[in-house]
Amino acid sequence: xxxxxxxxxxxxxxxxxxxxxxxxxxxxxxxxxxxxxxxxxxxxxxxxxxxxxxxxxxxxxxxxxxxxxxxxxxxxxxxxxxxxxxxxxxxxxxxxxxxxxxxxxxxxxxxxxxxxxxxxxxxxxxxxxxxxxxxxxxxxxxxxxxxxxxxxxxxxxxxxxxxxxxxxxxxxxxxxxxxxxxxxxxxxxxxxxxxxxxxxxxxxxxxxxxxxxxxxxxxxxxxxxxxxxxxxxxxxxxxxxxxxxxxxxxxxxxxxxxxxxxxxxxxxxxxxxxxxxxxxxxxxxxxxxxxxxxxxxxxxxxxxxxxxxxxxxxxxxxxxxxxxxxxxxxxxxxxxxxxxxxxxxxxxxxxxxxxxxxxxxxxxxxxxxxxxxxxxxxxxxxxxxxxxxxxxxxxxxxxxxxxxxxxxx
Length: 409
Description:
There is one protein chain. By secondary structure, the chain is α/β, with parallel strands linked by helices. The chain folds into two domains: 29-114, Immunoglobulins (Immunoglobulin-like), CATH 2.60.40.10; 118-406, Ribonuclease Z/Hydroxyacylglutathione hydrolase-like (Metallo-beta-lactamase, Chain A). The protein has eight helices and 25 strands. The chain has helices at 2-24, 154-161, 176-186, 216-222, 298-305, 324-330, 350-359, 372-375; strands at 29-34, 37-39, 44-51, 58-63, 66-69, 71-77, 80-85, 92-100, 103-114, 118-122, 131-134, 140-143, 166-170, 203-206, 230-231, 237-240, 243-249, 271-276, 279-283, 310-312, 334-337, 362-365, 385-386, 392-396, 402-406. An eight-stranded mixed β-sheet has the order 15-14-13-12-11-10-24-25, with no helix packed on it. Strands 16-17-18-19-20-21-22-23 form an eight-stranded mixed β-sheet, covered by helices on one side. Strands 2-9-8-4-5 form a five-stranded mixed β-sheet, with no helix packed on it. The radius of gyration is 27 Å and the shape is globular.
């Protein structure tokens, strides 16, 4: 009897020892891939962090119908390893799948292989604002539409660059120089809002319409079949293939409550950041920066967004926007200003240009800007400053290469 008890105790001690060793073993966890995006058609090395990594780990990227084994796996330590994605892996959004011993762990949508070029056209709409974005998959985004009744209609400008319909429409705010062209475009071929040929995009976003706008443009806007547009909320993120669109401001709110109770129209502007191939582009309507007695929304926004690569300068370069405090945080490589030639507002203001000169490598204007005779000031002659460019094209390749130029179309 005593022998049986000794055998039992021995087996129990072995079992407890095994349980103890198992409990002490680091958990096998996947946390992050760095970088999260890379161009397809080339070999890419990635770093994976987590815990409990051992030499027998097997890794693959997996998407619908695809499984791409990773090679050259090197364990740095139990929390970090490197691996290589083969050049044969096609462009797609992948889960990271790891197998170790009998355990399999997945990190969903952890890595994106990019293919093609993102094209952003800052359209020449005189003293207004309109931006056309075309993804590598030919999906189309329109942000604002300039004023109505231009010699060149918005639909004609869109058809110059794509034959695809607008999938996502974003209205920054209800001022006529941003809204008018959208109303005209969405009214269809007959130009009459609320009739059967009205265009209704798949998704549309706008700030809240509190009916404070009483213009004829806003009246026509409210009769569109697509009205009301879905209200934009800061913190919303949308994905269009490999392009990410983050709403960073709406109705004076960055996601944790409005910064003021009373807001004028420009302060309500919807702002978005486009992210592609590691690059960031900020487009924020007429968002204010504290000048001309306006509310400074751009400086706190810049603290949240950090550095960006391309800035669509708010409010056409008005002195109300683009303060030095925000520009220091953004440090944009390229700055774009939509402004009419010899416009009555004398935009852009030379102080804004001076601030941009410090932070940007190049500054591009759709029109020629102020008339020195009527405005009392002109803009400097500088190799950084490109005036009267018409439509301006910014391209971002899958490897992050960024180019800006006047559109050749």
